[in-house]
């Protein structure tokens, strides 16, 4: 289901080595540990001085799962990224999309009044209940959205 005029991504899609593996979700509590921060209004927090260590992943992007008669389409909201920032893995029962949105800061003096955009590592797990034609999977990144098209296998 290519879109005319849109470049298909060569996003790394891992399918051969995990062809028959089932995905098992492990539950962890993801927490952040900050050291040396006394007040969130200190400008040094956002000047690259932040010494934080986070468990992976930090956040999960918003996603839609859409089904047509011939395919499942996963649309993921991941603005501000490039093709190399994604890794897509298809297991027998799940699609896993992970990557890192790099931190972008403004140059010069100033301080943030709000930081609502998520940065850093992310992981999205989408359960797949149907057989997929693995050799026809497509992915593209367009205007801040990652689209993964999973053609259904004929039964």
UniProtKB/TrEMBL annotation:
Organism whose genome encodes this protein:
Fischerella major NIES-592
Question: What PROSITE patterns does the database record attribute to this sequence?
Answer: SHSP (PS01031)
Family, per the entry? Belongs to the small heat shock protein (HSP20) family.
Q: Which residues form the SHSP domain?
A: 54-155
Q: Name one Pfam family in it.
A: HSP20
Name the CDD domains on file: ACD_sHsps-like
This chain belongs to the protein called Heat-shock protein Hsp20
